[in-house]
Amino acid sequence: MTAADLGPVTIEYEITGEGIPLLLVMGLSCQLIHWPDDFVQQIADNGFKVIRFDNRDMGLSTKFSTAPAGLPRLIGSLVSKRLAKSEYLLSDMADDAAALLDHLGIDQAHIVGVSMGGMIAQSIAIGHPAKVLSLTSIMSNTGDNRNGRPKVSLLAKMSRLLDPSPDKVLSNGVESGRLISGPHFDENEERIIVQRAFDRCYSPDGTARQTMAIAASPDRTAGLRKLKVPTLVIHGLADPLVQPSGGRATARAVPDSRLLMFPDMGHDLPRNRWDEIIGAIVTNCMRAQVPSRIG
Predict the structure, then answer these.
(1) What is the C-alpha separation between 254 and 200, in angstroms, rounded?
(2) Which domains does the chain have, with CATH numbers?
(3) Which residue from 60, 84, 125, 154 has the highest number of Cβ atoms inside 10 Å of its Cβ?
(4) For residue range 173-226, what is the model confidence (pLDDT) as tens digits?
(5) What is the pTM of this model?
(6) In Å, how far are 232, 234, 260 from 257, measured between CA atoms?
(7) Separation CA 47–CA 44 (nearest Å)
């Protein structure tokens, strides 16, 4: 792995494979290692240079110093954007990703984002359209504050698992994964990645700041309607964290987009669906016009 000094932030990244650049953007509280290695390799085996990275405030990338919001303010910000105040927005995180591509000498790339990473991927396509060959938005939403909201019952359960004490991280992380995942949840696999992420970097304050950045960011619907790149939207019908309406709203907003939904997928990437998910991503990439210089 390598650190890229981008001026305002330093972003940690890793590259797998050779070929057409494809940028993977991870979600809230997650690090680049949350993209499973064999999932990444499977994409790379289709002829892509796969770039994954730690978003700001997470993993080995730059951490910010603003005091994180407490639980009442975070919950309030989910109800009304007027209550959301953040040091940075999703568009700033999109700028980080665009700057990383510049750092790597890449003019254009396919962009694939999951959850908050899907929101950032959308923001890259809106704010840096010349850099985007295709867009894939997975288990995400448009930020319109109506579609793709979490189930209230889930928020109540998740709020009891927010104890930041290091000795609670493993058990709470596994239980959180169980609550948001579909029927193919693998507890042993979840336990391994939660422990690996904790050992690499534990940043609960970063999670709170990223959450506020989501809440404070504006609705992307109008920007999505102007996109002219091949777009794929993937969502699980069993997703309780970003309910399926978020995927449907995203697909409605982007002209000529394609929507793929799985009945046995929650807010996760079930291994039994990888072939279909990766196949759909590759097919969407093939819809794009690839320029002569791609980095």
Answers:
(1) 37
(2) 2-286 (3.40.50.1820)
(3) 125
(4) 999 999 999 999 999 999 999 999 999 999 999 999 999 999 999 999 999 999
(5) 0.95
(6) 6, 11, 10
(7) 6
